[in-house]
Design goal:
- It is a single chain.
- The chain is α+β, with helices and mostly antiparallel strands and about 170 residues long.
- It has 2 domains: about 5-105, Alpha-Beta Plaits (2-Layer Sandwich); about 110-165, SH3 type barrels (Roll).
- The chain is built from 3 helices and 14 strands.
- The chain has helices spanning about 20-25, 60-75, 95-105, and strands at about 5-10, 30-35, 35-40, 45-50, 55-60, 80, 90-95, 110, 120, 130-140, 140-150, 150, 155-160, 165.
- Strands 3, 4, 8, 9, 10, 11, 12, 13 and 14 form a 9-stranded mixed β-sheet that branches.
- β3 and β4 (about 45-50) form a beta hairpin.
- The longest helix is centred in the middle third of the chain and has 13 residues, at about 60-75.
- The termini are far apart.
Length: about 170
């Protein structure tokens, strides 16, 4: 009987390449998913990671332990860790969280005017690539509340050219 697989989050401190993460996962019964988003700037469209430095892995709890052992063995070259919950266990994503990420992955980003309540992607600065809700609009500036994995980070003021509106 096959063990039930769940989604886990790997995080890379130095945003290591996908190929290094694939090396760590090689030979395990895991599936790697890097959510990508189409970003439209002018006439050009490119795919960028939805959450830079975050890698989603579907595997069994036993595979999490094997992957952790591999990470420890490669510690000098690869700096990756599983995100942990309050019990210090690898955080398991719910199907609802995965569905929401997949919905965001389908959207395109376009530069346009902003209004209160809209969702935006921050494209510059320390909050780069976070999704945020606009709470106040001023000429050239926005007050936004970024959200990362269902946690609001608090209000931040950023230049409007530092975000893209989500459709």
């Amino acid at each position: 009987m096959e063990k039930e697989k769940a989604w886990y989050i790997l995080w890379s401190m130095n945003d290591c390449s996908r190929s290094k993460v694939e090396l760590v996962l090689k030979g395990t019964d895991s599936e790697l998913w890097v959510p990508l988003l189409k970003q439209v700037v002018g006439k050009e469209t490119k795919e960028v990671p939805l959450y830079p430095g975050y890698y989603f892995v579907k595997c069994t709890p036993e595979s999490v332990e094997r992957i952790n052992d591999r990470i420890k063995a490669l510690r000098s070259r690869v700096n990756i860790i599983f995100m942990k919950n309050e019990n210090k266990k690898a955080y398991t994503l719910t199907e609802e969280e995965i569905s929401r990420i997949k919905e965001v992955e389908k959207e395109d980003i376009n530069i346009s005017d902003f209004s209160e309540g809209e969702k935006v992607r921050i494209v510059e600065g320390m909050l780069k690539e976070c999704i945020a809700r606009v709470v106040e609009v001023k000429t050239g500036f926005l007050k936004v509340i970024p959200t990362l994995f269902n946690r609001e980070l608090g209000p931040f003021v950023i230049k409007d050219c530092y975000c893209h509106k989500l459709k």
